[in-house]
Amino acid sequence: MPINFHDEKNRGSYANRNADEAWKNLARTLVDPAGLRVADVGCGGGIYTRAWAELGAQEVIGVDSSPVMVEAAREQCSALANVSFVVGDAAATGLNDASVDLVFERALIHHLTDLESAMAEACRLLKRSGHLIIQDRTPADVALPGSAEHIRGYFFERFPRLLAIEQGRRWPGEQVQSAMAAAGFTDVTEMVLWEPRRVYPSFSELAEELRNRTGRSILHELTDEELEDLIDFVGKRLDHDKVIAEGDRWTIWTGRRG
Ligand SMILES: C[S@@+](CC[C@H](N)C(=O)[O-])C[C@H]1O[C@@H](n2cnc3c(N)ncnc32)[C@H](O)[C@@H]1O
Q1: Is position 99 within any domain?
Q2: Distance from the CA of 47 to the center of ligand 1, in angstroms?
Q3: What is the CA(135)–ligand 1 centre distance, in A?
Q4: Strands of the sheet with 100-106, listed across from one edge
Q5: Domain total for the chain?
Q6: Dihedral of CA 99/100/101/103: which sign?
Q7: Contact at 8 Å (CB) between 50 and 24?
Q8: pLDDT digits (tens, 9 = 90+) for 182-235
Q9: Whose CA is nearest to atom 16 of ligand 1?
Q10: Which of 50, 99, 151, 203 has a CA positioned 20 to 30 A from the CA of residue 123?
């Protein structure tokens, strides 16, 4: 069954982690965050909403269609006076026309069936020459094999049906670029980012995260029994004497409002 972002049980799934320095460094090369008004659409528990504020944005507004996620994000960012959250859809955020300098959408678009409407909404929110940054995985990104650095690959080795689900919901790069261009974005670029996800001092921390399906919506497609089987499968492939440093390969698309 797909993840239900409205379920209280998933409240912490996209909240309790900090954006890695590698992500922050790339963000700084894409745009100078100082003084910007940013909309983080599909903000989840606010990990990257907070990161944009830490990078120097003047104001960051997180938007998410799930009230549960918005509540978790508010808790995570309660100390930041320049961060706020609203419940809204990627295609109808409720924010004003030409009101932000940057629209950021991380791990959102694979949950959308209508990319065009979300791109049109991003364009509407942006001031002239404002930036859109999209971060997601393509069908090629998700098909990478499993390794100590790319744990997700093991999910598909053990349960090939999960790969079919992943590939069915991930947008190919060309389609994202076309949707951006059709919505009126110019200077569209595409690049790869290996983003460190988390360092696990021992396998038991990783096993616990997998068991809770934290930040891994694809694992909601497995029964609890299948999940235990997967944890065992992954455990047998890793060296338990080594720290596990997991990362993910992402694709980043950028464009400017014409
Ligand atoms: C995988 S989480 C990513 C959260 C966050 N951006 C991150 O990278 O940690 C996807 C988020 O998108 C939200 N979402 C899904 N469909 C949406 C839509 N149509 N409009 C706005 N948010 C949506 C979900 O509620 C969820 O919080």
Answers
A1: yes
A2: 12
A3: 12
A4: 83-87, 59-64, 37-41, 100-106, 126-136, 244-257, 185-200
A5: 1
A6: negative
A7: no
A8: 999 999 999 999 999 999 999 999 999 999 998 899 999 999 999 999 999 999
A9: 111
A10: 50
CATH number of the domain that 104 lies in? Answer: 3.40.50.150
Residue 13, CA distances (Å) to 5, 72, 90, 98, 133 in order: 9, 9, 20, 32, 22
- What is the 169 CA–ligand 1 centroid distance (Å)? 14
Tell how far the Cα of 211 is from the centroid of ligand 1, in angstroms.
21
Structural domain boundaries enclosing 220: 8-257
CA–CA dist 113, 171 (Å, integer): 10
Who lines ligand 1 at CB under 6 A? 5, 14, 42-44, 47-48, 64-66, 69, 89-90, 106-108, 111-112, 217
**Residues present in the chain in total:** 258
In a domain, 3, yes or no: no
Residues 6+ apart with CB under 8 A from 54: 24
CA 157 to CA 160: how far, in whole Å? 6
Give residue-wise pLDDT tens across range 49-64: 999 999 999 999 999 9
Contact 49, 40 (CB under 8 A): yes
Neighbours of 34 (CB within 10 A): 10
Residue 13 included in any domain: yes
